[in-house]
Design goal:
This protein is mainly alpha-helical and 142 residues long. Helices cover 69% and strands 7% of the residues. Helix 3 packs across helix 4.
Length: 142
C-alpha cells in the first residue's frame, strides 16, 4: 500500500506544484518554466527531441510550449548549421533577465517547500529520486 501511495502522491503533488507555480508566476506557466530550465541545463542549443526527452514528454507537447515561449520572446529558434531540417532552441537575453528578476521569489518557493527537511533528509531524498528515476527508465525499456 505504501508503494501505491507514493506512486499516486507523485501525480497529486505535481499537479499541486503546477497550480501553485501558475498562481505565483503570472508571465509563464510551470510547464513553460520547466522547459526553460531543461534548455538551460544543456551546454548547447538543443533540438525539440532533446528537450522532450529531458522533460519526459512528447515532441508535440514541447513544440507547443516552445512556440508560446518564442511568441513571448523568451526563446529563439534557429536552424542547425549542419542540418537545416533540425531546429535549435536557445534562451534569449529577455529570458535570462526574467529569471534574474524572479530569482528571490524562486529561492523563497524552494526554501518554503523544503523548510521542514534537514540537510541529511534532503541528501536521502535526492538519492531516492535517483533510484526512482532508474525505476522509470526500467519501465521505459519494456
Amino acid at each position: 500500500m505504501k508503494k501505491q501511495y507514493i506512486f499516486a502522491s507523485m501525480f497529486a503533488d505535481a499537479n499541486k506544484l503546477q497550480t501553485i507555480g501558475d498562481h505565483i508566476f503570472k508571465d509563464i506557466t510551470m510547464k513553460q518554466w520547466f522547459a526553460i530550465v531543461c534548455i538551460h541545463f544543456f551546454d548547447y542549443s538543443p533540438n525539440l527531441n532533446e528537450i522532450a526527452d529531458r522533460m519526459g514528454c512528447s515532441r508535440q507537447n514541447v513544440k507547443k510550449i516552445i512556440s508560446i515561449l518564442e511568441e513571448k520572446k523568451l526563446v529563439e529558434i534557429t536552424s542547425d548549421k549542419k542540418d537545416t531540417r533540425v531546429s535549435r532552441i536557445s534562451l534569449t537575453e529577455k529570458c535570462f533577465l526574467m529569471f534574474k528578476e524572479r530569482e528571490d521569489i524562486e529561492k523563497e518557493l524552494i526554501s518554503t517547500l523544503y523548510k521542514e527537511f534537514t540537510s541529511e533528509e534532503i541528501d536521502f531524498m535526492y538519492r531516492m529520486f535517483i533510484k526512482y528515476e532508474e525505476g522509470i527508465n526500467n519501465l521505459q525499456t519494456k
